[in-house]
Specification:
CATH superfamily of the largest domain: Ribosome maturation protein SBDS, N-terminal domain
Number of domains: 3
Oligomer: single chain
Shape: elongated
Strand content: 15-25%
Length: 290
């Protein structure tokens, strides 16, 4: 754990530099902890178990930039409340005796131990404030993931054809920056800390207001002649999800596969190229997923 020097005067603001704050608001009060933002991200995702590797300075503040520390009584209240909640979630109920035991144990703790437990509560329940550079980095990564997902599954429901990668990138970019698309101006805000699965519905909903779009999975039956099955099977596994494989007496293969709608045209083209046009790809079902 890195130890920062004491603050000189309440008016002198702290330059956090590469560090950041986790802020927890309770009872109309604000509690702040100085952390390494990248380590904090790993901790919040469960990839880092030790909170001490996240916390830069073992102190809770009401205003970290001015160096104003939180009163120990407030920290005690935070820890008691958190412990009561934890025990209640485990047991379902909490008796009067249980509460009294929690109060008694925490009231007996030394200030340093209370401070340590309060740090962990804030780290777990607070909101991580991201430095601008890291925020932009995470948003760019999320944007690429979203574009990739939509390219993979999206088709034009009128033509049944996929959109070009460039078209999808341009529209997503416009939505994120609130730029006009065909006379319509819609802005979608991304949260750099949330998984894209929770944010895709709003993106897809916004897309539907500016272009005809549907996300789908196509179930197809693929028939491969005997002379091509050896080299085709592994490629089928990489391009699609094989749901069923039927090997005929003559050595030919009949496979039922699921293919994301946005890549089905390329899938079909590649299978035909690999089999010199002899393969047969038949659409069995189109399942809408968004």
């Amino acid at each position: 754990m890195v130890i920062l020097m004491s603050f000189r005067g309440e008016r002198k603001k702290l330059d956090l530099g590469k560090y950041s704050l986790v802020i927890y608001e309770r009872w109309g009060k604000k509690f702040e902890v100085i952390v390494d933002p990248r380590e904090a991200l790993l901790y919040l995702k469960g990839d880092l178990k030790d909170p001490d590797e996240v916390i830069i300075y073992p102190e809770v503040y009401t205003d970290a930039q001015k160096g104003i520390k939180a009163p120990i009584d407030d920290l005690k209240k935070l820890v008691i409340e958190s412990k009561i909640k934890e025990v209640k979630e485990k047991r379902g109920v909490l008796s009067k005796e249980d509460k009294q035991e929690i109060y008694s144990k925490i009231n007996d703790l030394e200030d340093e131990k209370l401070k340590e437990l309060a740090l962990y509560v804030i780290l777990k329940d607070g909101e991580l404030q991201l430095p601008k550079s890291l925020r932009e980095e995470l948003l760019e990564k999320k944007k690429k993931q979203i574009v990739s997902y939509i390219q993979k599954y999206a088709v034009n429901p009128v033509t049944k054809a996929p959109y070009s990668p460039q078209k999808i990138r341009e529209i997503i970019q416009s939505l994120l920056y609130g730029e006009a698309i065909e006379g319509k101006r819609i802005r979608v805000m991304l949260d750099p800390l949330k998984d894209i699965s929770t944010q895709l519905p709003q993106i897809i909903s916004a897309l539907k207001t500016v272009i005809p779009i549907r996300l789908e999975i196509i179930t197809a039956k693929v028939t491969i002649a005997p002379q091509y099955t050896g080299k085709i099977y592994s490629r089928l596994e990489s391009l699609a999800t094989i749901k069923e494989s039927i090997w005929k007496d003559d050595g030919s293969l009949e496979a039922i596969v699921e293919v994301p709608g946005g890549i089905f045209v390329n899938f079909n083209r590649e299978i035909l190229n690999l089999t010199k046009g002899s393969a047969k790809v038949e659409v069995v079902k189109r399942e809408v997923i968004g």
